[in-house]
Structures are given as C-alpha cells and as structure tokens.
Design goal:
This is Methyltransferase type 12. Pfam families: Methyltransf_23. The protein is an alpha/beta fold. It has 8 helices and 7 strands, in the order ααβαβαββαβααβαβ. It has one domain: Rossmann fold, CATH 3.40.50. Helices cover about 30% and strands about 20% of the residues. A 7-stranded mixed beta sheet has the order 3-2-1-4-5-7-6, with helices on both faces. It starts with about 25 loop residues before the first helix and ends with a strand. The relative contact order is 0.16.
Length: about 260
C-alpha cells in the first residue's frame, strides 16, 4: 500500500506550514554527505531535499498511486537518501521506480542506494536524452545553475514527461535584474570546473513555463540566512521563519524551488 506523509497540506502555497518530520532522517541517512550540517536537527542546507520530498508526496497523493521518478543530476544520491526508504525496499513507497541521469556518476553506488537504473548523459544542451519511457515526476535539483543552457536541458526532457506529470527542481537564486546587470556573465567567467554559470531567477522559471505551455504549480524561495552547524538550526521555528521569508520574497530567498505541470 502506498504510504504518503499525511501532514503535507492540500495547498502548496504556504510551505512554512508544511511538516518538518522529514528532517528526522538527517542523523540516520545523511551524515556521509554534509557531516557539519547533521549535528543539528533542522539544517537549512537540507531544505533543498525537503521541498522536493513534499512536492513528490503531494503529486503521488494527487495521482493516487506510486509515481515513476526521474532524477536528473544525482551527485551521490542525497535526494533519495532524504526520502528515507524503508528497510524492506530501497525506494520510498510513493515511488514505483526512481531512475538516475547524470553525465558522470558511480552507477554501482547509486544502485546500492536504491536507484532503479542509471543513464549516463551530458545534460548541458538540447540533445535528446536516451530514455525509453515517460515519467510522472522529474527532479532537477541544484543542477540548472551549473548549465550554460538550462532551458534547453529542461526542454530536452519535456517529451519524457507524462501529460499529468510534474517537473520539480531548485537552484540558488537572485532577482533577475541583478543577472541582467552583468552578474551572470561574471559568474560564468569565474566559474571553475562544474561551477555556477547561470542565474535561475523566479522570472526565468516562469518564462520557461510560459514558453512551453506549462503551469507554475509551485514556486517559493527557501531561506534568508543559513547557519550551518550552529545551535539555532535546532529550532523548527527558525526553519519556518526562513521558509516564510522565502515564500514571500522568492527571488530574495537564497534558493528557489518550483513545480511545473502541463
């Protein structure tokens, strides 16, 4: 039977009211990824996984069945770890499959973590991904800012999204005006190997959605001030305060998270 976090509210428009129970996974599943953050109960760095987990759970609830998930740009598998799969199965009960796409990843490690499969593919461009099926949900988490052509990447995967599917993701953000005034060019010029080269503003996400006939079902900033490993990150009220700020001022919320639907 599919089990979904019933604390997820029916409306996604005020994430500061979402359940923070998912953070219970941090000290059990996540220490190998960011050890300095896992000494606190609610590390704000992990909001990136928290937003996506809630959006996926809400979509599985909407469809009334386990969803087929595609994660593009998986790094070491942190997103799946935060989903807290049960000992009996390696992927969460809301998912029927969880496929990974990355230009270079440790396939054996990903399969051991519970990924259903892995496809090696350079996502920075408009080439057609070598996929064989469509998916209920796609994740582009802290990937788009590393791409010179983020819109082309999203568009290339769009044919593999089911008609009732969602594209979710998140990236560092700032107001579009700052990028237009030259910040993005300076960012790309000074970027190291796989550094940040694109500014993903809320306006840029909305423009992509409008261009491709998608609806912005959810869009929110993340936090105002992150204090990695500090005692204040033991406070759920501090987390909620930061998320509330991000919801009210998406382009000023340090990171932006979204869900796009057809």
């Amino acid at each position: 039977m599919m089990q979904i976090n019933t604390a997820t509210p029916p409306s996604p428009y005020w994430p500061a009211g979402w359940s923070v129970d998912a953070f219970s996974v941090v000290d059990r599943m996540m220490p190998e990824f960011h050890p300095s953050d896992t000494v606190t109960k609610y590390p704000l760095r992990y909001l990136r996984y928290w937003f996506i987990r809630h959006l996926l759970e809400a979509h599985a609830r909407k469809l009334g069945r386990p969803i087929d998930v595609l994660e593009v740009g998986v790094d070491r598998g942190q997103m799946l770890a935060f989903m807290d799969p049960s000992p009996e199965r390696k992927i969460p009960s809301i998912a029927s499959r969880w496929h990974a796409v990355d230009v270079k990843a440790d396939e054996a490690q990903l399969l051991a973590l519970g990924y259903s499969g892995y496809t090696s593919f350079n996502v920075d461009g408009s080439a057609k991904p070598p996929l064989e099926r469509q998916y209920d949900a796609m994740i582009f988490l802290h990937l788009l800012e590393h791409l010179h052509a983020p819109e082309a990447c999203l568009a290339a995967f769009l044919p593999f999204l089911k008609d009732d599917g969602i594209m979710t993701g998140g990236s560092p953000t700032m107001p579009k005006l700052f990028a237009d005034l030259g910040y993005e060019k300076r960012l790309a010029k000074n970027a190291g190997n796989f550094g940040h080269v694109s500014v993903i503003s809320p306006e840029r996400i909305e423009q992509f959605a409008d261009t491709h006939g998608l609806k912005v079902a959810f869009l929110s900033g993340s936090f105002l001030a992150r204090n990695n490993g500090k005692a204040i990150e033991n406070s759920s009220a501090w987390l909620r305060l930061n998320v509330a700020f991000g919801s009210l001022f998406p382009s000023l919320g340090s990171e932006v998270y979204f869900s796009l639907s057809r």
